[in-house]
Amino acid sequence: MLAVVQTRSWQEAYRGKVPQQHLDQLDPSRRRHGWLQLLQSDQAPAGTLVADHPDDGVVGFINVGPGEDTDTDPALVGQVRAIYILPEHWGRGAGRLLMNAGLDRLEAGGYREVVLWVLEANDRARRFYEAGGWQIDGASRTNDSRGAPLVEVRYRHRQAAAAT
């Protein structure tokens, strides 16, 4: 189900930002194996948390773990690797619940700062992160995995324990 959530979220969120041919070719069945491997290999505090709706089943998920960037210390900086919600559940609170749960998990693991990468053109996601206290930190990179070179920007969040 994670692959379906990811695929449907990409197809909606990236429409007009990523080549349509790439979005049309996305197939959840090709992503299932990768998600299965990740789920089996993650060790706490890394992990995947899901939002399960009583009528609709899994409507979203977040995957968190140690920071993966070369300019961050993975012992000190955690990372939101992925957060996706089915488009019909956007704006209903599942994303905020998942983000809070993911940040709590990382904080319990000792991480006082957390980073994430987002497509620069993904204004909806950027507004969501900024409303949750995330701040752009000035880092950017080009990602070619979505059918064209696309700029991603990095956001940083200081955990409550770090702010005191």
TrEMBL record:
One Pfam family per UniProt: Acetyltransf_1
Residue ranges of coiled coil: none
The organism's place on the tree of life at top rank: Bacteria
GO MF annotation, one: acyltransferase activity, transferring groups other than amino-acyl groups
N-acetyltransferase domain segment(s): 5-160
Classification via Gene3D superfamilies: 3.40.630.30
Transmembrane segments: none
Organism, scientific name: Actinoplanes auranticolor
Database matches in SUPFAM superfamilies: Acyl-CoA N-acyltransferases (Nat)
InterPro entries per record: Acyl_CoA_acyltransferase, GNAT_dom, YpeA/RimI_acetyltransf
Annotated keywords: Acyltransferase, Transferase
The protein, known as: N-acetyltransferase
